[in-house]
Amino acid sequence: MHLLHLDSSIQGDASVSRTLSAAIVEQLRRSHGALELSYRDLGAQPLPHLTLPGFATPEATATLDAFLAADIVVIGAAMYNFGIPTQLKGWFDHILVSGKTFRYSERGVEGLAGGKRVLVALARGGHYADGPAAAMEHAETHLRAMLGFIGITQPEFVVAEGVAIGPNQRETAVASSLSRIALLPGDFAPAEFAH
Ligand SMILES: Cc1cc2nc3c(=O)[nH]c(=O)nc-3n(C[C@H](O)[C@H](O)[C@H](O)COP(=O)(O)O)c2cc1C
Q1: Residue 193 pLDDT exceeds 50
Q2: What sign does the dihedral 79-8-140-22 (CA atoms) show?
Q3: Closest ligand 1 atom, residue 10 Cα
């Protein structure tokens, strides 16, 4: 079984999403035993922006192939400016490829990557789960839209919210997320995990 682990935070060791994505990988390693791991730090080594000549370059093909080869994908995602880091969007730009991860048919769009388990560790500075700011949440919603488009309709989200409000809020949110991660089942659990 192959696990692809991605991080996208620009905040290095201070990153909440990196802490949580690493904890998810550790939890899955404990349950699975023999997991083949590959890691990509999109924050430190971003992919080039999508351009027409950038389609199907060796780097773009290798990025897509690494995703296609993965049984499990763990994504560390930060909320920056109400959305996902540009580096993570750049990775998705190489993953949403017609004929590879989705296709248009008479029945509409058909996702082709549905067999994968995808877990997302998302860190947000403020609170968006409910209340007036909910309409400004374009990180989780964007990730769910892109993943759903390619057939991953039940990604498992672990969300740490309010981490920029103060040290106490950050500590509480991280501890709560780590407790959720400790309960993550080894087997694919498509039911909603976060919130
Ligand atoms: C450049 C930047 C932009 C941010 N924009 C937002 C934002 O729009 N909304 C929000 O709630 N938090 C925002 N934050 C706070 C981050 O969501 C918070 O620091 C979170 O921990 C980011 O994940 P990370 O720690 O893995 O980098 C921003 C932080 C940075 C550094």
Answers
A1: no
A2: negative
A3: 27
| Residues 116/150, Cβ–Cβ less than 8 Å | no
Whether the predicted pLDDT of 38 surpasses 70: yes
Q: Whose CA is nearest to atom 19 of ligand 1?
A: 125
> Was domain 2-182 assigned CATH 3.40.50.360?
yes
d(CA 191, CA 154): 7
Helices marked H in the chain — which ranges?
16-32, 58-69, 86-95, 140-149, 167-182
Q: Ligand 1, atom 31: nearest CA belongs to which residue?
A: 80
Question: Which is nearest to 42 in space by CA: 82, 2, 86?
Answer: 86
Tens digit of each residue's pLDDT (9 = 90 or more) over 9-20: 999 999 999 999
At 176-186, the pLDDT tens digits run: 999 999 999 88
